[in-house]
Fold each of these.
Amino acid sequence: MLELRKVETYYGNIQALKSISIDVNEGEIVTLIGANGAGKSTTLMTICGVTPPRKGEIYFKGAPIHKMSTDKIVALGLVQVPEGRRIFPNMSVLENLEMGTFLRRDKSDIQKDIDYVFDLFPILAQRRSQLGGTLSGGEQQMLAISRALMARPRVLLLDEPSLGLAPLIIKQIFEIIKKVNEEQKTTVFLVEQNANQALKLAHRGYVMENGRITLTDTAEKLLDNEQVKKAYLGL
Amino acid sequence: MQYFLELSCSGLVRGSIYALIALGYTMVYGIIQLINFAHGEVYMIGAFIALIVSGVLTIYGFSGFSILILAALIAAVYAAAYGYTLEKIAYRPLRNAPRLSPLISAIGMSLFLQNYVLLAQTPDFLPFPSLIPDFDFMEPIAHIMGSAELVILVTSAITMIALTVLIKYTRIGKAMRATQQDMTMARLVGVNVDNVISMTFVIGSVLAAIGGVLVGSYIGQINFYIGFMAGVKAFTAAVLGGIGNIPGAALGALVLGLAESYAAGYVSSAYEDVFAFGVLVLILILRPAGLLGKAVKQKV
Ligand SMILES: Nc1ncnc2c1ncn2[C@@H]1O[C@H](COP(=O)(O)OP(=O)(O)O)[C@@H](O)[C@H]1O
Ligand SMILES: [Mg+2]
């Protein structure tokens, strides 16, 4: 569904991604784990065309997307929930959700989808008229995921959704990701530092270090891998 | 009391013209953090186009409000084209350059446009026909303002209401707000940020051109240099209100217009600029972010 082939991304002269290749198949949950500064966020921003690759190719359903502008890539259904949530602070919860539908043509079903995300995260329904900037971290994460779902993504790209949240809320959010993957058949590419939880949720995983993919396997095997246990699971 | 009301009225007239120009500064700043120094020149060019168009229309036998409306429309279209082109050739190539570069480019474009009009037209003041016809209206209002003032106030008010509706409810307006609040996130929901920036220049230029037409016909003369002082004042108004804040720009402009008018009326018209900038300094001391500006927020 989504293929990265020897992708290299630079910030000026600094190389952040060093020839990485990743495959995400339709319907899967694939996770990318790695320490801070490994290049995980850059990977997502490269897929979305925000920091386009200098070398290598990216394909979505077999068609090259690495030269496309971000809005074209989003229109294909690659929708990101970026690190730090990036809620529009001076827009209400409803307006933030509406921004998620910016490229949708089937405006008639939007209310149904709003009801759907309010069902997933009832707290957002209570907060619907509140400005995004006034929500708590957990609520903002819920809103960020909901905003992405409003776009009806084919692939949902999540960047550290657990960052800075209480364990109970992390659990809730991971359950929702699983639910969306199962109910909506949405393919999920999940970037996490929280390797334990991510690998428990995912089908397959990639490990990234200093801009390179150093390991890839099924999630089960990665959870058992000595190297992973030592470096990322704190065991 | 009568005198005070007249001064207030003329202050509001000035203020609403400043507002029409200030909105362009503040919208552009809000989105790309650029002070578009050439914005005053777009206003000046709008006035020149209106002058030319109204001359032609008069020859063809048009009269009254039809000239005003047609001249304003055509001036707006021209100004929009100028604003669009300006962004495309002078600012877009510098989008990722250090912040000083587009600023210098803006000053360059300002000088270029001034001199272009100077050469293409004339260094002298040109008489501008009074495009706003006299008409009768309600007595208590007629007591403190003429029909020109009334038309300027009403036009500015309608324009600003239209802008507010556009920004609040339309697709492009929502895209503009999203881009202003978080450009990367706007792109990630599918906003074509380049188009939004272009449209911001276009909208700002249309407002400035409307201001140019109104001022031309109110003051009765224009030259290539009118964009400079108007630009400085409007920019001051935008800073006064909190640069980047749209209602702030309108409020700042009205405060500035009133301050100038009272200074001219009660002290001396020689002091109106001193007073205007005095108000700016005072407000920036008391509220460094401007009247409606928010204290600097961290941007992640
Ligand atoms: N805007 C930027 N400019 C320069 N370097 C950057 C920028 N963003 C990230 N980097 C660098 O690229 C590397 C990868 O960063 P990032 O993708 O954010 O890592 P991660 O998401 O895994 O923590 C880091 O060394 C970081 O310092
Ligand atoms: Mg990151």
Amino acid sequence: MTAKELKNRSVNYRKKILQYIVGANAGHTGGSLSCIDILNVLYNHVLNVSPANFSSPDRDRYIQSKGHTVEALYVVLSDKGFFPEQDLETLCRYQSNYIGHPTKKVNGVEQNTGALGHGLPMAVGNALAAKMDDRDFRVFTLLGDGELPEGSNWEAFLTGSHYKLDNLCAILDYNKLQISGTTAEVCNTEPIDAKLESFGWSVKHVDGHDIEALISTFDALPFEAGKPSFIIAHTVKGKGVSYMEHHVKWHHGVPNEQQYQQALEELDSVTI
Amino acid sequence: MEAVAENKTISGKANLEVFSSTLQELAAVDRNIVVVTSDSRGSGKLVPFGQRFPKQLVEIGIAEQNLVGVAAGLASAGKKAFAVSPACFLTARALEQIKNDVAYSDNPVKLIGISAGVSYGALGSTHHSLHDFAVLRAINNITIVAPADNYETAAAIKLAAAAGKPVYLRFGKKQMPDLPQESDQSFRFGKGRIIRDGDDVAFIATGETVYPALQAARKLEAENNIHAAVISMHTIKPLDYDLLALAAKKCRTIITVEEHSVYGGLGEACASFLLQNGIMKPFKITGIPDEYTVTGSQNEIFHHYGISEKGLADTALELMRKITGEL
Ligand SMILES: [Mg+2]
């Protein structure tokens, strides 16, 4: 898929994220909009995973540690053909499988996440299994910046480098906001790159909304042989909708009808 | 204070050692058997395993949350992952990983809680696991097993290895004799074993408390002409309701025995079933009471709380008196 096609998809994905969040009157809007370009490039350019090979032991694995931005994942998975898009009309409804965090009841989802700090250790386990079995699949996990203080992440950072898991890539959706404010105010994790490097990971920064930059960054994996890779993707919470960008109140804010229409107009006017 | 002599008649191995040798047997023919440890190779008797199968052992270091999360990832990628750590840490420090990464995500990890209960008696409450049945019982999709003897341990490890579902096994480091059994009963999760038949008292015991229950039953027979049944209720969940109902209907009194808090474990699981099914008999839960646990060896702690030949026989006599009105 060309970069232009991917950019068109990103616009479309943003509109669908808003459509289903508005339909459900629930969802993690800001974070879904901040991570969607990453998911777009992962699923349409990087990952060897599709409905056809999802039960193959050789498929690539993607575990979404920041489970709450599940709307972004659902929209991409439905676009990839894992389930009919109309299923998303049941989002968060009684007895729907499409709940507010990923579960394996939804085709294409690898692990049930939602509690924070859980994706990376499971990704480490997947990557270790690949090494043990001499399989070539790669493992990706997406972390939120708000979940970085979870101790289990730092335990897993140690294990990832100890076992030289260069088939493992963790991506940080670094929108610098979490529910109570900025990450710098809540729990300053900087300098993230120096910390990760000292933990034995190979680190790159990227603009998490620049499709070409994301492509070239993922194409460079592994950044160093014998080391797991860490991508600090600088993003904007609420990206693509002017009144949401950089505003923490859109962490799980749902737009009203007028706001929704304005968002669609803004997204429709994007020139690619 | 009265000194408590270790029982000299025990002639088995520690269940922990049986765990290690059984796992080696399995690993020799199945390279998907993987042990994941948190610097617990020594205490888990897994040093020989690591020497024989270095590529099938993943050392995590002392990081139990990560231990369980990594084991879940290994299991989801096809490994038969045995996550081994002292029960006290495994089921408290890593509880959220057990709940989400193993049980909720349905990754068939075999969680092995070693040195369980008060096995680390004198090390104090940090090292005791008297909560594990209670917390795990409230989590959906996990089988909870406390093997009593070497036979049950070996069988449980083999079943756990083959299980496509999450399992928690816990055992101690005390030498255990192989228990007799009433008839040829194959070991299955969720099916208790009848160790001894009787119709006056039903001792429903689990793990390393089954043996003192058997000793008490023999004493009651010899000294009081009281016929006590002993059941090894190795599986705490799913509980063998059929056997429990059978024993409760047949016997005049019921005593549960566990190396666990009297809250939330085997005893309350039995009480809940019996009450809801209208089976009312004199009933006593024996275990560790809700207090700062007394210090001492496992054996001394057992004696202190009446989990012993004499203590359990006395409890039985007390319950029988309620029925007969005799002294
Ligand atoms: Mg954030």
